[in-house]
Write a structure and sequence with these properties.
The protein is mainly α. It is built from 4 helices and 2 strands. The protein has helices at about 1-25, 35-55, 65-80, 95-140; strands at about 145, 155. The chain has a two-stranded antiparallel sheet with strand order 1-2.
């Protein structure tokens, strides 16, 4: 089950990464500004890395950004061959650096930070459980139980009123 869940997440995040990396191609018809297209690629690389780092555990988190990067590049390249419509930003160094280095590195960083946080949470939970456990054991040992004369239930011996039925068990001190 875990294997298929991982495959499903990889496919879903890869598609999301592809769509983000495809933004410069889609928006290149609206703007001819190279700087804006590079900023869009930075945005795509950051979002792709963050989503991949949060959704995928372990070293597999680099797969979606790289596959999204490659698929968007291939889409742009094939569009240039067959439709004579492509964005030149895909062939320059910012796209390659952001897509192949920055986005996977960010995904790994977020995965590692997330794993560290999970370990910290487990340590905190274990510490709280360890601290509470002895108190609960001591509390159980110290309380003597008596039988309520009205309802017959087991109640603490120092009770004035029965917590089960509410009747008066002893005189107030």
């Amino acid at each position: 089950m875990v294997y298929w869940e991982l495959i499903g997440r990889l496919v879903a995040v890869s598609i999301i990464s592809y769509l983000f990396f495809l933004l410069p191609y889609l928006l290149s018809t609206l703007t001819s500004s190279y700087i804006i297209l590079v900023i869009i690629i930075m945005f795509a690389a950051i979002v792709s890395g963050i989503i991949s780092g949060l959704m995928i555990r372990g070293r597999y988190s680099i797969i979606p950004p790289v596959s999204g990067f490659a698929a968007a590049f291939l889409t742009n390249y094939l569009s240039g061959l067959f439709l004579a419509a492509s964005s030149r930003v895909y062939f320059d160094w910012p796209y390659w650096v952001l897509g192949l280095i920055a986005s996977p590195a960010l995904a790994l960083l977020i995965t590692d930070l997330r794993a560290e946080r999970e370990v910290e949470r487990e340590v905190e939970v274990a510490a709280v459980e360890e601290a509470v456990r002895p108190e609960a054991e001591v509390a159980e040992e110290e309380i003597e139980l008596i039988e309520c004369p009205s309802c017959g239930g087991q109640i603490p011996s120092d009770s004035i009123y029965c917590p089960l039925c509410g009747s008066k068990v002893a005189e107030e001190k």
